[in-house]
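Lab notebook: predicted structure, single chain.

Context: the supervisor wants predicted structures on file for every construct in the current expression panel, including those that have not yet been purified. This is the next one on the list. No modifications to the sequence; it matches the entry in the shared construct table.
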Amino acid sequence: MEALGLLRIRVRRGINLDVRDTRSSDSYVVVECGSQKVKTKVMENNCNPIWNEELTIYINDLKVPIILRVYDEDTFTKDDKMGDAEIDIKPYVKCLKKKGYEGVLDGTKVERIEPSSDNCLARDSFIVCNKGKLVQEMILRLKNVECGEVEVEIEWLNLPGGSGLHD
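Prediction complete. Output recorded below exactly as produced.
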């Protein structure tokens, strides 16, 4: 199947991540989509890590979930799970398919997505115009863990000669 495009995921930071070692955690993020897996570097002894890393995956099918998982790296045992969240790109893709954002000032919020039972948003998320492109900023509440959030930003990248997004 031909890729529709690429999704750049900027993993900004973790917020109040769960302690998995004695007093802290050696945390990293893995993003999975189908058979793809990309990961950030490990931030040692930090429950509020700042990764500021860009991870890129290709999108073949908009229905395949994008899962963000946080882990605590361990030296002698299996890495501990620290929660997971789904990155819901449907509202972002819907906004991308609309035309007419050319000339919109940087920083303009063009769409707001509210937290709901259908997404992992911790608070309102905004699709913002940035250097002529639309990006979505979001803070994801981690599931299957006592506490923790991860701040990310997503941006769609068209592939030269790719099929792109269609209605």
